[in-house]
Amino acid sequence: MELLISEEKLLQRIKELAREIEEDFGRDFLVVSLLKGAFVFTADLIRSFNFPVQVDFMWVSSYGSSQESQGHIKVVKDLERDIDGLKVLLVDDILDTGYTLAEVYRLLQLKGAKEIKTCVLLDKRERRKVPFEADFIGFEVPNLFLVGYGLDWDEEGRNLRGIYAVH
Ligand code: 5GP
Ligand code: MG
C-alpha cells in the first residue's frame, strides 16, 4: 500500500471544502451521508462547519461485484427524516462510475428535496460511466483502488487515517 493523501492534507482540504459549501450553498441544509464509506469524511466535514447542521444517513449497496457498482442500487437503510421541501447536501466518499450518486440523487428528488448539491471527497473522473459531476470535490484521484479514511478493502482499512492506494 502506498500513501496517496495524508491525514494532514485531508483535514486541510476539508476545511476549505466546508467554506466553499457555505459560500455556495448557505447554512440551511440537511446533510445526507452515504454509509458506510462516507462516515469518516462526514464526521470531519460537519465539524468544519461553523454553524449547526443536521445529519441523516442512507445505506445503499450495488448488486453484483463488490469493487464496481453496475447501475443497480439497493437501499439497505433508508433516511429517517422526511426531506420534502429541504435543501440537501449529499455526501459520499468517492465518485467512481457515477451509478451510485446518480441513482441516490434521483431518489432524493423523488422524496421531494427542494435543492440537492453533492459533495465527494474523491473523484475518479476517468472511470465515469454515467454523466454525473459533483458540486464540491475534495481531490481528483487516479484510477487506483483506494482504502482508508472510511474506504474499505473487504471491510478492512476504514480506520486508516490517510488514503492509500492498493497495488
Ligand atoms: P460508483 O457508483 O460511483 O461507481 O461507486 C461509488 C462507490 O464505489 C463508492 O461509494 C465506494 O463505495 C465504491 N468505490 C469506488 N472506488 C473505490 C475505491 O477505490 N476504493 C473503495 N474502497 N471503494 C470504492
Ligand atoms: Mg460507498
Can you describe what's shown?
The structure is a single chain. Helix 1 packs across helix 2 (39-46). The chain has 167 residues and is α/β, with parallel strands linked by helices. The protein has one domain (8-141): Rossmann fold, CATH 3.40.50.2020. It has 3 helices and 9 strands. It has a 6-stranded mixed sheet, with helices on both faces. A 3-stranded antiparallel sheet has the order 1-9-8. It binds guanosine-5'-monophosphate (5GP) and magnesium ion (MG). The site of guanosine-5'-monophosphate (5GP) has 16 residues, from strand 5, helix 3 and strand 8.
Mean pLDDT: 95
Order of helices and strands: EHEHEEEHEEEE
Main pleated sheet:
6 strands, mixed
User: Do you know the CATH topology?
Assistant: Rossmann fold
What CATH architecture label applies? 3-Layer(aba) Sandwich
Strand order of the largest sheet: 4-3-2-5-6-7
Anisotropy-based shape: globular
Total number of β-strand segments?
9
Bound molecules: guanosine-5'-monophosphate, magnesium ion
| Domain tally | 1
Task: Tell me what portion of residues adopts beta-strand conformation.
Answer: 25-35%
Give the SSE layout.
Layout: E1 2-5, H1 7-25, E2 30-35, H2 39-46, E3 54-62, E4 73-77, E5 87-95, H3 99-110, E6 115-123, E7 136-140, E8 145-147, E9 163-166
Parallel strand pairs: 2-3, 2-5, 5-6, 6-7
Antiparallel strand pairs: 1-9, 3-4, 8-9
This protein binds guanosine-5'-monophosphate (5GP) and magnesium ion.
Guanosine-5'-monophosphate binds at residues 37, 69, 92-100, 145-147, 151-152.
